[in-house]
Amino acid sequence: MSDAPTKQAIRDWWAAHPMTYGEEHGDATYRDEAGNLVRVERGSRRFFELADARFLDWNTPHHEPGGRPFGRLFPYDLHRGRPVLEVGCGMGFMAMCWARAGARVTAVDLNPVAVAETRRRFETFGLEGEIREADGEALPFEDDRFAYAWSWGVLHHSPQPRRSIAELHRVLAPGGRVGVMLYHRRSFLYRAWVRWQEGFVNAESRFLPELDLASRYADGARADGNPHTWPVTPEECRRDLFAPFEDVRVEVFGTDVPNILDTFAPRLGGALPERLRASLARRYGWSLWITGRKADARPR
To answer: Whole-angstrom Cα distance, residue 78 to residue 81?
Structure first.
């Protein structure tokens, strides 16, 4: 059976509900520095500033202290002047970080709204990069082109994530590295919210298969969510999805864990000792960060 209808539904849903990090999913309303609700024009400089601030705040542990966003994850300095690729660029923040670090950025997305907003961002901030609409399962690039490739919170929405990851492997140069964030099926969020609250308490599992349950409630503000979301496990990443790569490592990130705990017992997340919160986050966080390396070219 063709995946074309599912892909079209995914493309259309994300075009209608882009990842703006607003107060409502797809909306451009934010709380400003004074705590006031403000609505801004999507694609304006102020939009990018407010959306970026929200995204940065959610991911504080990944930034260099007083330095570059996501500097604890991304090897910016190793790729200055080199070609890098993002699959699923969203509103373009991470592509911007790489461009500012001096990399030669190519960014793609299945969603035309994401492509348009990322192009507008690069124009607004005076950055250079190739931004284009493309399907991650069939990338329009030659083999061995990029020194580094990444994807953040995207490929679990692909009907064929294995194919998308194989494409990342194909377009990487020998010795090139990859970094991919995928949702974690053993997380507190998935077990407590999707399976327990929606699946059992609200009896949704009586009517929805698990894939449909995950797709409806695991993203898109967890209310009638996007057409396809399937979180994965660390074991699936190591033995299957990232099998083409060498030196595969999987970390669990859990900045969401305190908030999830609070939904079941108010202020529980903040009341737990920091060491216990950190331990739970490393095991039951919502995000998996998978890294790997394409094998060096073998002598002929």
So the answer is: 9
Residues 6+ apart with CB under 8 A from 52: 93
Q: Is the pTM here over 0.85, yes or no?
A: yes
Domain 4-50+77-293 carries which CATH code? 3.40.50.150
Tokens, residue 11 = 């493309």
Exposed/middle/buried for 132, CB within 10 Å: 0-12, 13-18, 19+?
middle
Q: What is the DSSP string of 217-244?
A: HSSGGGSS--S----B-HHHIIIIITTT
Question: What does the block give as tokens for 242?
Answer: 């990232």
3-state SS class at 110: coil
Nearest residue to 173 (alpha-carbon basis) of 290, 79, 70: 79
Residues in Cβ contact with 79 at an 8 Å cutoff, skipping those fewer than 6 apart: 98, 101, 102, 103, 147, 148
pLDDT tens digits, residue range 51-60?
A: 999 999 999 9
What is the spatial distance between Cα 49 and Cα 93, in angstroms, rounded to a whole number? 10
CA distance linking residue 103 with residue 145, whole number of Å:
14
